[in-house]
Design goal:
By secondary structure, this protein is of the alpha+beta class. It folds into two domains: 117 residues, Jelly Rolls (Sandwich); 82 residues, Winged helix-like DNA-binding domain superfamily/Winged helix DNA-binding domain (Arc Repressor Mutant, subunit A). 45% of the residues lie in helices and 20% in strands. Strand 9 and strand 10 form a beta hairpin. 42% of the residues are buried. The C terminus is likely disordered.
């Protein structure tokens, strides 16, 4: 029988004070979201924020002709919907579920009221927003300066960290879409990593077999992002899977 996740499986919610959580708890709902489900589209004004407990989501930007690239990956270390506390206006990108799982959903107005109290909720959400901006900027740099094999290695590590295991369920087409590169480049990169004995790959399933070796094949962007999240997000008593993997 499936055991529902706890709100405190989310890093940010686990870092709230009891008083802060008591104000949010009556409005917090547990929801199950499925793989490839769209959480919100570009231009939407959000009605809820989502705090992943077991799901993994991709923040995407899509061009008018349908091409897209991932700007950030969000798991149980953060939240989906920072625009509702930063501006309250429409979103600039979209969010899509990568792995089926659960999240805690909180109405926008309730979370915004708690944010405006200027307590630890505000500090944590601002810290997460800064970490999210760091991830977006670092990945833009990575796409410009590092070879595809390095990017593939980093992509697999980031998802494995947030999934809490060494299995990644993702096709080469999905990796290419997320990185904004050609599928052929991803195929070459995955084959090289497999020949080095770092991963085992079958369609839609990647098993990380040598994590240290995979980290060595990734560019410095992976370590920079890991360190940024450790520095910017609270870890007292509630280390997320992202940080345990370091």
């Amino acid at each position: 029988m499936h055991t529902p996740s706890s709100p405190f499986d989310n890093h940010l919610l686990a870092g709230l004070t009891p008083v802060e959580w008591s104000r949010l708890k009556p409005y917090a709902d547990r929801v199950v979201l499925t793989r490839n489900q769209t959480i919100y589209d570009s231009g939407e004004t959000l009605t809820h924020a989502y705090f992943p407990t077991t799901l993994l989501a991709s923040l995407m930007y899509v061009t008018l002709d349908g091409d897209c690239v991932e700007s950030a990956l969000v798991g149980n270390e953060g939240m989906l919907g920072v625009s509702l506390v930063m501006s309250g206006g429409p979103t600039c990108g979209c969010a899509m579920v990568l792995t089926t799982g659960e999240a805690i959903r909180i109405p926008a107005g309730v979370l915004r009221s708690e944010f405006n109290r200027a307590g630890s909720t505000m500090r944590m959400l601002l810290g997460f927003t800064q970490a999210l901006l760091a991830q977006t900027a670092q990945r833009a740099l990575c796409a410009r300066h590092h070879v595809i094999t390095q990017q593939v290695a980093g992509c697999l590590l980031l998802q494995a960290d947030r999934s809490g295991c060494d299995e990644v369920f993702m096709t080469q087409e999905q990796i290419a879409m997320r990185l904004g590169v050609r599928r052929e480049g991803v195929t070459e990169g995955a084959l090289l990593l497999q020949k080095l004995g770092l991963i085992r790959y079958t369609r839609g399933h990647v098993q990380v077999t040598n994590r240290k070796g995979l980290e060595q094949q990734a560019c410095e962007c992976y370590g920079v992002l890991r360190d940024a999240y450790q520095r910017l997000l609270p870890v007292d008593g509630c280390k997320p899977r992202l940080l345990q993997a370091a």
